[in-house]
Amino acid sequence: MIKIRTKLLVYFAAILFMIVVVFFVREQSNQKVMDLYDESVEHFILLNELTKKTTQTFQSLQIYVYEPLPQNLSIYMEEKEQLITLQQEFTTKEEVGIPKKNYLNMLSSFLERSDQTVEGVKRQDIQQYSMNLNEAEKTSNYIHEKTLELINNELTEYKELSSLIEKKISYTKKLGSTIILSIIIFSILFALWFSNGITRTIGRLTKAAQKISKGHYSGEDVVVSRKDELWFLTKTFNEMKRNILQSVTEIEEKARLSQLLKEMELKSLQNQINPHFLFNTLNTISKTSYIEGAEKTSDLIASVSALLRYNIGNLERETLLKDEVDVVKEYFFIQKTRFGNRVTFEENIDPGCLSTPLPCLTLQPIIENAFVHGIEDMAEGAVISLTIFQENEKVCIEVRDNGIGMDQQTRDKLLDTSNEKDVTLPQKSSGHSTGIGMKNVISRLKLFDKGSHVDIDSELGQGTTVRIRITK
């Protein structure tokens, strides 16, 4: 993840580097011009010093010739040494070409004629020192003229060179201006790109937050392509939205199941006309029947009493599979007594599974649905079977009937617990004791055991099989 701060630091470092490059190039160009200027000025000053010192040396020589005194000779020798020093400096600094070589030769010739003049004066050879003095004067004049010629040539070359330098300076200025203009354009484009990236992401987050504030939690996630702090913020925001959606869904599910439980209690109350009074009355009738010798009637009343006793109380309580099976057996006995040979009840129960906990009134509503909506209208051959066995870590409960069955749409609606409305089935009040629907049973099972699973296999005319798998 590249942080926004890192991006800004890289950007400013790149801008600073480009500015330093521009200033460095300009400084190098200016330094070259200054070096060329200094070199030319030093060259002109050296030529001027040579000409001036040659003239001074010649004048000292003339004074010595007219007045051959030791102090005049000393002045001449001093001027001569200075001229020789300038000659050596000229030889060292300047590139020796033909014009400059001739110039050095004239300087050497001038010094040679000057020395010969001094020797003639010392020997008092008038003819010798007069001729050498004239030659030295001529050479001095030649040196002066040659100096002017060299300076003129140098100025001509310098003019051409300065023109090239001016062009180079102009090119450097244009290049610097272009680079600076490019930096400005690049800075503007970067600022637009960078700010758009931030504001676009913030805008998307704002719109998503507004939707959430209005209760719309199922919108698409906010997507950010660049991985920076805003990417992390967006990722956290999306996770928060999903957590809120999950929490709201769980709250709605719990509220819906709570409503289902209240409806169950209401239906149970609607089916109970003073249940404690009825329960006590049935016990009295059962005892009276037994005393009078009507044992079958007593057993039937006892089964109704047991069924009623189980249905009285808090519907949210937890019970064991054994108690549910016992209640179903009482219900089987009542219906068997009522319909006789028209109905057959089959049981195949693994005793090791009977200690499994499950919600109260889970099996009886399923058995009632199988009887009321499946086989009640059959004149003969009706069969309802209850099978309980262990399958891996689950306890499997199967309720099977050979009744009229149901279509695919009805099965899907029964299994769709997200729809709070119960499924409309053919309503038959006879034989119905709880008034609890299949969807209510499925919802309570899921609330009790998240790992539970309910499945329905059915076809019209082929019967129905309800399978429940719960954790042991």
Task: Give a short overview.
With 472 residues, the chain is an alpha+beta fold. The chain has helices spanning 4-66, 70-93, 98-123, 126-213, 229-270, 275-291, 295-311, 321-339, 363-375, 408-415, 438-448, and strands at residues 318-320, 343-349, 357-359, 382-391, 394-401, 453-458, 464-471. The chain is built from eleven helices and seven strands.
Mean pLDDT: 77
- Biggest β-sheet: count, sense, barrel? 5 strands, mixed
Remind me, CATH topology of the largest domain? de novo design (two linked rop proteins)
CATH class placement of the largest domain? Mainly Alpha
Q: What sort of overall outline do the alpha carbons produce when their principal axes are compared? A: rod-shaped
Query: Taking Cα atoms only, what radius of gyration do you get, to the nearest Å?
Result: 60 Å
Helical segment tally? 11
Q: Total number of β-strand segments?
A: 7
What portion of the residues fall into strands of 2 or more residues? 5-15%
Number of domains: 4
Give a verbal description of the structure.
By secondary structure, the chain is an alpha+beta fold. The protein folds into 4 domains: 4-189, Up-down Bundle (de novo design (two linked rop proteins)), CATH 1.20.1440; 224-270; 274-313, no CATH class; 318-471, Histidine kinase-like ATPase, C-terminal domain (Heat Shock Protein 90), CATH 3.30.565. It contains 11 helices and 7 strands. The two termini are 48 Å apart. Residues 422-432 have low confidence and may be disordered.
